[in-house]
Amino acid sequence: MILNKLCHKNILRQIKIPALSQIAIPRLYSSTDSSLSETVDLAYASYESTSDENCSRPPLIILHGLLGSKNNWNSMSKAIHRTTGRKVISIDARNHGDSRHSSQHTYIHMAHDVMKLLKKLDLSKVSVLGHSMGGRTAMVLSLLCSDLVSSLVVVDISPVKTSPQIYSMVSLFDAMSGVSIRSGIAMSKARKLADEQLKAIIPDINLRNFLITNLVQTNTGSYSWRVNLPALKDNFQSHISCFPNNLKGLQYCGPSLFVGGSLSDYIGRYDLPEIQEYFPLAELTFIEGAGHWVHSQKPEKFLEVVCKFLTEK
């Protein structure tokens, strides 16, 4: 079959964490760059029950988007677990949530972080679902380590193009960096003050509420953002905002579902042929009335679409 000829030979035959410099495909990286072998430990939440031991389906790994965290997926993780019976593991990306910070923030690094965690958890086969930044990490993981990925779900992002809206993220980094809150006040008051300061730049209350989930109080009573804003801003233009262009020629030939919001422009309705250059078995569906945050704007329909795919594939 032509499809079989298109599929690349698996780069990683076993669950192991090679130095990033050992992967020959990404031509931008040299073996002399020691920072490429640096993975970080990732925080995660696991949703499972005693009956999961009898489930033959691999666990589902969930990867959140930029400035998000595993907590944003708490309700959806529980719902997917209840509906499919699969164990669900929701992960904080580097520089987000409870995971460690790093000056490096590329999709290659983030994919290797996930590989490291899966090795730690002794998982040899998983399904992966990623939204936005997490969707690109999921795509890179499946391209670099296809034997590891049983099926792939990518939410409102693609390897083909980038929405012009994504470049507004820089203004969010700046707005968050400019927030100043005095120490020692209650969290409820601190959230209110943060909202007031962000309002001038970010009129969307839902977006402000999303960003403020990153506000934390330290042991000394001071307030800070748990996301690593300097690293995200430094890596945004060159790495976060675009899909790696040095993975062309690789393919993941497993079941793949791309889910877009009908009101979002992160995935074009005619992008499927180009998506299939990386993911030959990819299907593309749109959820009506949803924007970029498909899972939170239309949760019931999103759950139905994703669980149907996970059950059938």
TrEMBL record:
One of its GO terms (molecular function) is carboxylic ester hydrolase activity. The keyword Hydrolase applies. Signal peptide: none annotated. The keyword Coiled coil does not apply. SUPFAM superfamilies: alpha/beta-Hydrolases (SSF53474). GO terms for cellular component: mitochondrion. Its EC number is 3.1.1.116. Pfam families: Abhydrolase_1 (PF00561). Keywords: Hydrolase. It catalyses: 1-octadecanoyl-2-(9Z-octadecenoyl)-sn-glycerol + H2O = 2-(9Z-octadecenoyl)-glycerol + octadecanoate + H(+); a 1,3-diacyl-sn-glycerol + H2O = a 1-acyl-sn-glycerol + a fatty acid + H(+); 1-octadecanoyl-2-(5Z,8Z,11Z,14Z-eicosatetraenoyl)-sn-glycerol + H2O = 2-(5Z,8Z,11Z,14Z-eicosatetraenoyl)-glycerol + octadecanoate + H(+); 1,2-didecanoylglycerol + H2O = decanoylglycerol + decanoate + H(+). Residues 58-299 form the AB hydrolase-1 domain. It is an enzyme of class 3 (hydrolase). InterPro entries: AB_hydrolase_1, AB_hydrolase_fold, Epox_hydrolase-like. Belongs to the AB hydrolase superfamily. This is sn-1-specific diacylglycerol lipase ABHD11. It comes from Papilio xuthus (Asian swallowtail butterfly).
